[in-house]
Amino acid sequence: MIARKVPHMIYGADYNPEQWPEEVWEDDVRLMREAGVNLVSLGIFSWARLEPSPGEYDFDWLDRIISLLHENGVMVNLATATASPPPWLAARYPESLPVTQNGVVLHPGARQHYCPSSSAYKERASELVRRIADRYKDHPALAMWHVNNEYGCHVAECYCDTSAEHFREWLRARYGDLDTLNEAWGTAFWSQRYAEWGEILPPRSAPTFANPTQQLDFRRFSSDALLKLYEMEKEILRGATPEIPITTNFMGFFKPVDYWKWALREDLVSDDSYPDPSDPEAHIKAAMSRDLMRSLGDGAPWVLMEQTTVRVNWRERNIPKRPDVMRLWSYGAVARGAEGIMFFQWRQSRAGAEKYHSAMVPHVPTETSRSWSEVSRLGAELGRLDELLGARGEAETAILLDWESWWALELDSKPSTAVRMLEGLYSFYEPLYNTNVSVDFAHPGSDLSSYRLVVAPNLYLVTDDSVENIRRFVADGGTLLMSFFSGIVDAQDHIRLGGYPAPFRELLGLQIEDFVPMATGETNRLDTTGGETCDLWADLIHPEGAAILASYTDDFYAGTPAVTRNVYGEGAAYYLGTRPEERFTKLLVERVCDEAGVRPTAEVPPGVDTVRRKTGAASFLFLLNHNQETVEIRLPSPGRDLLTGKGHDSQLTLDPLGAAILQEERHKVDV
Ligand code: GLA
């Protein structure tokens, strides 16, 4: 269960009552009851209203709205209001403003205009949090804490002088002395040797490529600087209310912040998610984020903290979700472990930059609104899903993701800057999703022993511990599928010498003589029966025991192996030295799943997403039809659809964009 005080599926939104006259609040709570809302995130952007001038606080309005919500059965996910400082903070402490890499100061007038290392920001923010915590800690409506908002969303790093000082402190703690730092940063190169700590700067705009390790460390530092802010607030809240769960909202695969580190420090994971309705694969990309969220919390239930009912306002063209899509995508989140579905925001703003962003309550009268009827329907349905609470997903496959490796992979001055982490992850996630295989994401250093198959896309940077962890996984009988440009550097972004990829040569049974990055539009071909093409990258592989599964057919490296398999210990390690067209990756993924004994969740028609969640006593099969046509599904077990209450024996018909959650009668099902 997400929060003891809301022992149901959570349903609600960000609620910004300060944007409205109080008469509207009565209407708000009436409509919240109508829609089945049981939790709202309150006060996220209220700092200027709560502390109109320095040290002068006004909580009366917040007291009134919290009481009104409580009287109406709506619990509160109370925000700490530190996400957007009031203009007075910048006026009084101009040094609190963030500075970009080019030295440009970011001014107030939008939001998130603070330097994460600013002491003025930290002092004023923590005082505000203390007062909020103190005032509401015993309020019966308080169900959860919402710390700040989307850390790093607009300002993930700051290059000001204070940040430079803090960066140096962070480096001192990491390296101890300057010689060690000089060694780690490889400063013998380009005369970069530092003689004094004071000479070290963040990687500000420079004539050409900045030192890669300096850049990597600055990313580590910047993620940690934000994490410190979170911990500063968390400590205050924990002291006031040891029992109330604390979260801050993530943003899916958000590069600047290492969510593995963060999730460990949260009571529950929550996520904001805005898939693009104009992208035909949006639901698959959304599923990938949902699987990440479940994995970050080690399988525990999480909350979809924000999504939109219909449209956002921040793309160039804000394509609406078609009828039934919001419902279907919401169940996509529930299928992958969400026990809360919430929106940005409750009532659509009348003014400000987000007035064209849809909300649960639209500008137009609710009686004439398609989205309101969808909102009410979903609220009523979620109210019937208490049985699902605590049910967990089960995955036999893990895709490895390490934020540090992601940062290092995408630094400049590489063989090819076209190799992108998310594309690498997705190139394997998509075929796994399409074969109905459940996937976790895992850190390469984490316990992999529960998986049969581990996929390691472009795992560029690896620590010795991760190398040993992956090696042991295969030696103990696991199946590994690793793709190109993996195991190339250590934690300092230094090449691991001894023939690429040095730490995995024995495991993979090969050596890579060289990389051949391909030009835009350039392809090669594999000597498979299907003759599939490949692009982006070609590793020139010399097998050292590995069996060759496919070789290139063209160019100066025709006949060189591209795909291999090596038996290692009790397991097997596959290596993919290029980016093949999807058809090939799909076949390869099917083969490794088969070999690893990874089973699909169920056999369903294409375009149907199927996921299972289980408790000790029950098993729930989600069937989500992303097709525009009706589909017939042969059920692996008879069961009852929680959404309709209807029983189904062996067959179930799903409407276009329809969803079913089947409580299975037989729950140890072999497909
Ligand atoms: C983010 C923010 C919200 C809002 C939405 C709009 O998720 O957290 O405050 O700006 O984006 O999509």
TrEMBL record:
> EC?
3.2.1.23
A cellular component term from Gene Ontology for this protein is: beta-galactosidase complex
Binding site residues for Zn(2+): 115, 158, 160
Q: Which GO terms describe its molecular function?
A: beta-galactosidase activity; metal ion binding
Q: Which domain of life is it from?
A: Bacteria
Q: By its UniProt entry, which InterPro entries does this protein fall under?
A: Beta_galactosidase_C (IPR013739), Beta_galactosidase_Trimer (IPR013738), Class_I_gatase-like (IPR029062), GH (IPR017853), Glyco_hydro_42 (IPR003476), Glyco_hydro_42_N (IPR013529), Glyco_hydro_b (IPR013780)
The processes (GO biological process) annotated in the record are: galactose metabolic process
| Amino-acid positions noted as binding substrate in the UniProt annotation, renumbered to this chain | 111, 149, 314
Beta-galactosidase C-terminal domain: which residues? Answer: 607-664
The record's annotation in SUPFAM superfamilies points to: (Trans)glycosidases, Class I glutamine amidotransferase-like
Residues in Beta-galactosidase trimerisation domain copies: 395-598
Catalytic reaction equation(s): Hydrolysis of terminal non-reducing beta-D-galactose residues in beta-D-galactosides
Where does the Glycoside hydrolase family 42 N-terminal domain lie?
A: 14-383
One of the Pfam families matching this protein, by short name? Glyco_hydro_42M
Q: Tell me the keywords, alphabetical order.
A: Glycosidase, Hydrolase, Metal-binding, Zinc
Active-site residues from the entry: 150, 306
Please give the PANTHER family that the UniProt record associates with this protein.
BETA-GALACTOSIDASE GANA
Q: Which family does it belong to?
A: Belongs to the glycosyl hydrolase 42 family.
- Protein name per Swiss-Prot or TrEMBL: Beta-galactosidase
